Amino acid sequence: MNQMTISEPSIVSLGGFPVQSLTANLLGKKLEQAIDDKEQISLFFANTNFVVKCQDIRESILKSNCVITNDGIGLDIASLLLHKKKFPENLCGTDFVPQFLIDIKHRARVFLLGAKPGIAERAAKNLRDHLGVNVVGTRDGYSQMQDINEVIGDINTSEANIVIVAMGNPLQEKWILDHQHKLHANVFMGVGALIDFLAGDKPRAPALIRKFRLEWLYRLSLEPTRLLRRYTIDIGIFLALCINAERNKSKWAEKT
Predict the structure, then answer these.
(1) Angle ∠(116,127,40) on CA atoms, nearest 5
(2) By CB count within 10 A, which of 61, 83, 109, 114 is most buried?
(3) pLDDT in tens, 31-78
């Protein structure tokens, strides 16, 4: 067993969630150690939508063995406003997860769960053919999810050690929290639209747009009806949640 020693990262509290200040390298080592030690760990990518939509399951998330990382410019802005510091890297799930799978492809056994019918299968084929990743099973997020005992049986039979769940916030996080104790896998990731990207059903923004942290604007231009609220009203809700959480912490500190 590989006995890696990983220092504890600093924590940035945003909207009541402890977001870990990590690099992609340290995050990868943390997940790999869970596989080595045959422990279970969940990875949640906290963008503004996560902070807003996952408030109702926040206590369950905080009680679980999970890593919450920063995804998107909204988290950086909130961290600068409230804590006067930036995260060392933007740990966007659509960038981090494929690279992590490539880095450990000699030992990864991946199960894809979610997305519309047919998409997970196409994503699995692309991962196998183009990245050399061992995908041991797939299930879509619709008819193939109806019998949860069958889903759990399939994942366990496949001997997957990584389960990638793409259902959007907060459904994917709730699914992981509700069912991981019945599963033998070690690493669980809530990944939003990643399976759609891997399948080629949704395009990534060009590299230059991603470099300037404007992928959200590119996605908004492609799906304005679905994403308009997320990038307007929900941004205001996100900032209010972050500010209120800090105020509540200060009030609590004054009373103690």
Answers:
(1) 80
(2) 114
(3) 999 999 999 999 999 999 999 999 999 999 999 999 999 999 999 999
Quick check: 27 and 53 in contact, CB under 8 A?
no
CA atoms of 40 and 188, how far apart (whole Å): 8
Handedness of CA 228, 231, 232, 233 (dihedral sign): positive
- DSSP structural state of residue 193: T
Contact 119, 201 (CB under 8 A): yes
Strands, E assignment, 47-183: 66-70, 110-114, 135-139, 162-166
- What are the structural domain ranges in the chain? 11-22+35-255
Phi, psi of 137 (to 5 degrees): 180, 155
Q: What is the pLDDT of residue 189?
A: 98
Total-model pTM? 0.92
Beta-bridged to residue 139, according to DSSP, are 113
Pairing mode, if any, of strands 10-14 and 17-21?
antiparallel
The answer to whether 196 touches 115, Cβ cutoff 8 Å, is yes
Angstrom distances, CA of residue 234 to CA of 36, 96, 141, 170: 39, 25, 25, 14
Cα–Cα dist 149/139, whole Å: 13
Per DSSP, the chain holds a count of helices (H) and strands (E) of: 13, 8
DSSP 8-state symbol, 2: -
- Residue 80 CB partners (closer than 8 Å, separation 6+): 86
> Taking the CB of residue 255, how many other CB atoms lie within 10 A of it?
6
Q: How far apart are CA 116 and CA 114, in angstroms?
A: 7
Locate tokens 């492809």: which residue? 105
DSSP one-letter string for 72-83: SHHHHHHHHHHH
